[in-house]
Write a structure and sequence with these properties.
heterodimer; A: about 375 residues; alpha+beta; Uridine Diphospho-n-acetylenolpyruvylglucosamine Reductase, domain 2; Uridine Diphospho-n-acetylenolpyruvylglucosamine Reductase, domain 3; 3 domains; five-stranded mixed sheet; about 30% helix; globular; B: about 525 residues; Vanillyl-alcohol Oxidase, Chain A, domain 3; 21 helices
């Protein structure tokens, strides 16, 4: 990796790069930055920062015509990642960050997809709206980035996944065409085409605008935590809780440091849910905790400093959890009570633990599904490689 | 030209390939699994798309060359491989309840009836999942779940004549979708045979990486043939609350529905009828401002629709006269008192059902709705599947009936409703209900009836009405189908609706069905002349 320096050319500056001149002329001053590198280092030659869908489309068309490879980034990296295209460009989506409109009747917001979840939530909060809970690990992630990764990291039975709140998208396809879908909460007009973007890391197009479901901000939600004797008990309690019709805004379980107990924490969204949960917990004899460790690790203790990154995220049936509970004492789990749980740990995951997870039925990101080759074929068709 | 797009005037070479394929299928699957007999081919030659029925009054539709009944996913895979090699189209067929032509046979193609693949492979009550094969009938699956104290929560009006595979293929919605979601919300993973004849299983929902479930669900057999699905199931509800409300206007009803959903409540049913459909549902006019008018075209229409008799009967003639003058009839109906029936059914635990019922009641009182008690909700539940079986009497009377469901955001809903009514109004008598609501928007389910002097006139009127409705919905920025799918009925308009987004589908089709044999011509069609 090499560290590079940014040099912002003025229009007409003699930097001897026709591509930069062309992009600069198309997108306007300040939208293209030349990257100067140490002698001998190779990497992208410039950073392109379009701020509209049309500008992205123009840039993509120019790059395609020029045969110049690009890599999508959401914040300019100080160092080149290993897959940075030598001689190519960084297509930086971070300036695609405007809130375009709010529909207060339908409770939807139209935004550019380079905006981060955290910033969007902050802007919505000022007007009395919310996306629902945004965990720390998603705060700095852009909407388009989440779609490219198919983020399913929000532990919210009530609000579901952030990427599932998309009602419509605008995206620039690999050929520079602009694809737009119609806004509606559900449809039956063939496959859900924007799903072609999900989890494909922008290979099948770059998301530039989205239409998202939002909600009216409610009063501060109470948090409740319980201590349970292990993962299986936590899962069983969570299942009964959901089956009783309780839908917490957040529900996450975490291993309690220094023991085998599991803390199940929920953030409630209605008074009726609170009453039902109290009754259920009392009937089952679960001890209430005074601390909300699992929630705090997901949403911070209030100072906004707690943050970590997932080492492994996988879907696991309860048996898999039991198999690795001892190996991953600090694991956190959500989607409890559903057929598959999402497991996340910031503890080191060794090869044996990973193998045990798979052996017990977990699906880890690297597990083959039989669709990989088809996915590659879809991308080749969109990029014109076939 | 792709062999799957062979014109109706087929080549001798194609005919020979089809004949060879049928021989091979018989040899590989056994004689009881393949038929070229006319009655059996006709039985699977079309679904319940009304246009197919109207066309059949004038001319017999060319059916498929053969029907095959695979008994396992492995046989499905083998059939797909053989068809791909021979370049012969395959149309997957469940129970044929589709209303969009999605299962209409391709001339000289093969129809694959999957109803013999119907096992419930796994029912895990603890985890809340059922893995069921595509040919399982909806009603039978629900009965099986019921015996285990569970429910899928998926109750399309076609439940007695539709399959799991059909639900998934068409992005079906049930009558309780407001609580349990549409079928795409229930899918955990799918087993699917892609166009290369491979059996694949999609990564379970929530997996990192590409979302193949969302791409296969709704693909109507054009990207793969679904052979099994793992679906979420729920404990059967312990408690239900029923309620009917008479709201002063459609807009007031929208307000109650919107506020309920945006407050996070999930009633099992929240169903609003427009004034005409309110009368069809049996609701009489209210006292006070809504006293019954002296001239009541809605009541007259209801009476005639329910008892018109055969085409030559006086009632049928009167019905045709009323709906033949569609523009006038619609105007007269528009002048009726605007009260609308709103039905709610809430369920779950007693606490949940009652608190949701109370929340709806608060919103309803906020728009000065009148509480009709439990009767409308209970009546709806008891008769909720009746409508599908009432339609044949309308055809017998020399008229036609069809439905058109669209969806949009709450902000656009009133304008969409007006625009589609205006478009349909000159051609057919139109009514609507609103029964699939979300925080962000709602579907509209239009029902329209029309007639013509001769079958060919009826077909012209039918096609004119559909084109007008689709044009209007497109212009209003609506999605052109909420849960019936595309099939052939909307295929003319989907290219315009999807624009460049269609490129995603084209890429998917090329990758998953390289020979182009899977249900060709469906979803995207050519503009109708």
């Amino acid at each position: 990796m090499s560290r590079w320096e940014v040099w912002a050319p003025t229009t007409g500056a003699g930097h001897a790069d026709p591509l930069v001149d062309r992009l600069n002329a198309l997108l306007g001053a300040g939208r293209v930055q030349v990257l100067t590198r140490p002698e001998g280092s190779r990497g992208p030659r410039c950073l392109v920062q379009p701020d509209t869908t049309e500008a992205v489309a123009q840039a993509v068309r120019v790059l395609r015509e020029s045969g110049v490879p690009s890599s999508v980034v959401f914040t300019p990296p100080p160092f080149d990642p290993p897959d940075a295209p030598a001689g190519g460009v960084y297509l930086d989506a971070s300036r695609l960050s405007a809130v375009l409109s709010v529909d207060e009747t339908s409770l939807t917001v139209s935004v550019q997809a380079g905006i981060t979840w955290g910033r969007l939530e902050g802007l919505l909060a000022r007007r009395g709206f919310t996306l629902g809970p945004v965990p720390l690990w998603l705060q700095a992630r852009a909407v388009a980035e989440s779609v490219g990764l198919n983020d399913r990291l929000r532990p919210s039975p009530r609000y579901g996944q952030l990427v599932d709140a998309l009602h419509a998208v605008t995206a620039v396809l690999p050929g520079g065409e602009v694809a737009r879908t119609t806004s509606a909460p559900r449809r039956a007009t063939g496959p859900e085409l924007p799903a072609a973007l999900f989890g494909t890391r922008h290979r099948n197009g770059l998301l530039t605008e989205v239409h998202l479901q939002i909600w009216r901000r409610a009063a501060e939600a109470p948090r409740v935590s319980f201590t349970l004797p292990g993962w299986a008990a936590a899962d069983a309690f969570a299942r009964r809780l959901l089956q009783a019709g309780i839908r917490p805004a957040v529900m996450v379980a975490g291993g309690v440091t220094g023991g085998t107990d599991v803390a199940l924490s929920v953030e409630l969204s209605t008074a009726a849910d609170g009453a039902a949960l109290t009754t259920l917990a009392a009937a089952e004899g679960h001890a209430r905790r005074s601390r909300h460790e699992a929630l705090e690790s997901a949403f911070g203790a209030g100072d906004g400093t707690a943050s970590d990154a997932p080492v492994v995220a996988c879907l696991a049936p309860p048996a898999a959890l039991a198999a690795v509970a001892k190996r991953l004492p600090r694991a956190r789990v959500w989607d409890l009570g559903s057929p598959w749980m999402s497991l996340w740990t910031d503890a080191p995951v060794d090869a044996v633990t990973r193998a045990r997870l798979v052996e017990a039925g977990a699906r880890v990101p690297s597990a083959p599904s039989g669709f990989e080759a088809l996915g590659d074929a879809v991308t080749r068709a969109l990029t014109g490689e076939v | 030209m792709n062999s799957a797009t062979v014109p109706a005037t087929e080549s001798a070479e194609h005919a020979a390939r089809v004949a060879g394929l049928i021989d091979t299928l018989r040899a590989r699957l056994g004689p009881g699994s393949v038929s070229t007999e006319r009655p059996e081919r006709e039985a699977v030659g079309r679904d319940l798309w009304p246009r197919s029925l109207l066309e059949s009054f004038s001319a017999a539709a060319p059916g498929p060359a053969a029907v095959v009944w695979p008994e396992s996913p492995a046989q499905v895979a083998e059939i797909v491989r053989l068809c791909a090699r021979a370049g012969v189209p395959i149309v997957p067929f469940g129970a044929g309840s589709g209303v969009c032509g999605g299962a209409r046979a391709v001339p000289r193609g093969i129809v694959m009836d999957v109803k013999r693949i119907k096992a419930i492979r796994r029912l895990d009550a603890e985890r809340g999942v059922v893995e069921v094969e595509a040919g399982a009938m909806g009603e039978l699956l629900e009965r099986r779940l019921e015996r285990a104290g569970l429910t899928l929560g998926h109750f399309p009006s076609s439940i007695q004549c539709s399959t799991v595979g059909g639900w998934v293929a068409a992005r079906s919605a049930g009558q309780c979708s407001t609580r349990y979601g549409k079928i795409e919300d229930m899918v955990v993973d799918l087993e699917v045979v892609t166009g290369d004849g491979e059996i694949r299983r999609t990564p379970p929902v929530g997996s990192p990486g590409p979302d193949w479930n969302a791409l296969i669900v709704g693909s109507e057999g054009t990207l793969g043939i679904i052979t099994a699905a793992t679906l979420r199931v729920h404990p059967a509800p312990a408690h239900r609350c029923f309620r009917g409300w008479l709201v002063p206007s459609l807009e007031a009803g929208f307000e109650v529905m919107r506020r309920t959903l945006q407050a996070g409540h999930r009633p099992a049913v929240l169903r609003l009828y427009d004034p005409l459909d309110t009368r069809m549902a049996g609701q009489k006019y209210a006292r006070g401002d809504g006293d019954a008018p002296s001239v009541d075209p809605a009541g007259r229409l209801k009476t005639l629709l329910e008892g018109a008799g055969d085409a030559s009967a006086p009632g049928a003639r009167a019905l045709r006269a009323l709906i033949g003058a569609a523009r006038l009839t619609n105007l007269a109906i528009d002048a009726l008192p605007g009260q609308c029936l709103l039905i709610s059914v809430t369920e779950g635990s007693a606490v949940e059902a009652q608190s949701t019922d109370a929340a709806i009641a608060a919103f309803a009182r906020g728009v000065r709705a009148r509480d009709l008690g439990e009767a409308p909700g209970r009546h709806w539940l008891a008769h909720r599947h009746d409508v599908s079986y009432k339609q044949s009497r309308i055809y017998r009377a020399g008229a036609f009936v069809d439905t058109f469901e669209v969806a949009t955001t709450w902000a656009r809903l009133p304008a969409l409703d007006r625009a589609v009514r205006k478009a349909l109004g000159p051609h057919v008598v139109v009514m609507a209900h609103f029964s699939h609501a979300y925080a962000g928007g709602c579907s509209i389910y239009f029902t329209f009836v029309g007639t013509g002097a001769r079958p060919s006139d009826m077909l012209v009127r039918y096609r004119t009405a559909w084109k007008a409705a689709l044009d209007a919905a497109l212009a209003e920025g609506a999605v052109l189908a909420h849960h019936h799918g595309v099939g052939l009925s909307r295929a003319t308009h989907l290219p315009a609706a999807h624009g460049e987004a269609r490129r995603w589908y084209t890429a998917l089709k090329g990758a998953l069905d390289p020979a182009g044999v899977l249900n060709p011509g469906k979803i995207y069609g050519e503009a109708e002349s």
